[in-house]
Amino acid sequence: MIKTILFDVDGVMLSEERYFDASALTVWEFLHSPLYLGLSGDVFTASPEEKDIRRVRELVFASDEVLNFIKSRGINSNWDMVYLTVAYQIIRLCEQLKAELGQKVTDLLTGQINRAELARLAEWAKEYAPDFTIEYAKFTTDFSRGNAQKAEMLLYLNQIARERCGVVTNVFSRNSDLWQLCQETFQEWYLGDDRIAASIGRETMQPGKKGFLNDEIPIVSPEEMIQLFRTLKEKGYTLGIGTGRPSIETHVPLGELKLLEWFDPNRVVTATHVLEAEKESPAHAPLSKPHPFCYVKGLLGLDTPNSEVHSFALPVPNGDEVLIVGDSPADMLAAQAMGCRFAATLTGLSGKAARSKFESAKADYILDDVRDILSILE
Asked: Which parts of the chain register pLDDT below 50?
């Protein structure tokens, strides 16, 4: 009998659309802003109108083909999505520059790529590759040649650098300077000028970003979700959260929608807690989904030391008493690693088209949306 229910947020309670918009805008900024690569072909602004956001999203993720591919390989973090997309285009640019610059390109691809190196690359591009064309859809073509899954996709960038540029490197990883820069720049877009300093310790590099935090889209009406969580609490279920969102991006919108109060505060685990655990013990990184860390932490409680979470034996005892509710393959993989039950909601990026994938992967339950959870508990 199920006793504890741990929910993902994006694709279950809140739409992922604004996260994907922020991801696309981050990639766009890296490639076209004069403060980053400043490539020709588009004009960057920190205050795009909605029609421009829609255009950029369609362009950067090739009508969501790239997004669907990345998520199908088990990547659930928007930070990782941005990093993969940006790093891939940097490798393609370096491929074109290699003929003219040789060892200089090799040196760049074998060292940390930070702001200074991006500025250097921008100068080279302007002088030696003014005709460079960004081809977003090639991302899927190149990555389809390999079978990299989950965190291995980030490392596979090193293989692509070798194939395209003839450079042997291991610089591409989640622990790189470029990944950190992608993460911070994404946060600028999502949180906006007013909130960013509290999150990353500095102001936005290019002011004008209003943020998406106050523009969240509930998947079903807040009133219906409140009634659902109230009913679950009255029936005696312990409710928790395991999300790839940082704490501020979890607490603010769920608090404003009156949803947060129904969850056990000791079991609301966010990407902030995951990053803290990775810094505390780098040998265990990466810990983002599909790694089960956030759900194990939610099951045990925030007051459980991370060392105990790392050493907690999987599958968990009495796994049939724990239900994880998520929209992505990454959530399902985490649940399977824990030996817990998994309920897939068809309200993520792929919508109802995801049913066949969850059926073939043998998800315990498949729900049209989160409201259907009551039907599987009765």
From this structure: none
